[in-house]
Amino acid sequence: SIQLHIHSILTVIMPPKKKNSKAAGNYREEVQVSKSPAEFFAENQAIAGFDNMGKSLYTTLRELIENSLDACESVNVLPNISVTIEEMTQSQFNKVRGLKTSSSAENGFDNDDGIKDIDLFMKKSNKRKSKSTGGASEAPTDPVSGAPEEVGSTKKKRKANAEAYFHITVRDNGCGMSHEAIPNLLGRVLSGSKYGVRQTRGKFGLGAKMALIWSKKSTGVPITITTAHMNNDQGTPGEFISKCVLDIDIYKNRPRVIEHSKQPNNSDSPWIGTEFQVLIAGNWTTYKSRVVQYLQQLAIITPYAMLELNYTNASDAKRSFGIRYERRSEQMPPPSKEVKHHPSSVNNLLIQQLLERSRCKTFLKFLCTELSSISPSLAKRLIAELKGTQSDAEFDEDMSPADVTDKQITILVQMLRSVELFKAPDGSCLSPLGEYNLNLGIQKVIEPDLIATARDRPSAYEGHPFIVEAAVSLGGSDAKEGINIVRFANRIPLLFEGGADVATRVAQSKIKWSLYKIDHKRDKINVFVSIVSTKVPFKGTGKEYIGDDITEIQTSVKRALQSCCQQLRAHLTKRNALRDERERRSRLVKYAPDVSRSIFGILEVMRKRKEEDVDGSSEPHSFPRKRARGNLIQAPVLKHVLDPALVQDTMGKLDRGEISVEKLEHGLMEAIEAQSTSGDGMEGGDGNVNTKNKNAKKTQKLGQVSQPIFIVPQYDDEDASATIIRHPLFTFRSNRPLPVWPITVD
Question: Which of 196, 413, 646, 660 has its CA 20 to 30 A from that of 363?
Answer without folding.
Answer: 196
